[in-house]
Amino acid sequence: MSDIIKKTLDKQIGGSHYINMKISPLEYIEANNIGFSEGNIIKYISRYRAKNGLEDLYKAKQYLDVVIKREEENEARNNKENNR
Question: Residue 64: phi, psi to the nearest 5?
Answer without folding.
Answer: -65, -40
